[in-house]
Amino acid sequence: MSKSSPASQSIEQLRERHKKLHERQIKVKTQREEAMNRLAELQQQAREQFGTDDLEQLQQQLADMKKRNQQQQAEYQESLDAIEQQLKEIDAGFTEGEDNDDV
Question: pTM of the entire structure?
Fold first, then answer.
């Protein structure tokens, strides 16, 4: 003898429940296929841009790029600091020259 559930459903309710589950299954499968297609597109793009689609290699490349960017930023800042210092020295030279002309 089969054990019935505490709240037995009519055949119409069961069919509606089955229909909803089937629709949900189709939706999930479609979303999965779309996600897999998008993943394949992104992997192809990564291979074209970075020569790999391996996550670890991409993370290493990103770390290398960040390090290189920080080094370039520091060099740029040093260059600007040097230019600024030179301009201050030139400005100070002109100010001293103007002061000497007044004497």
Answer: 0.60
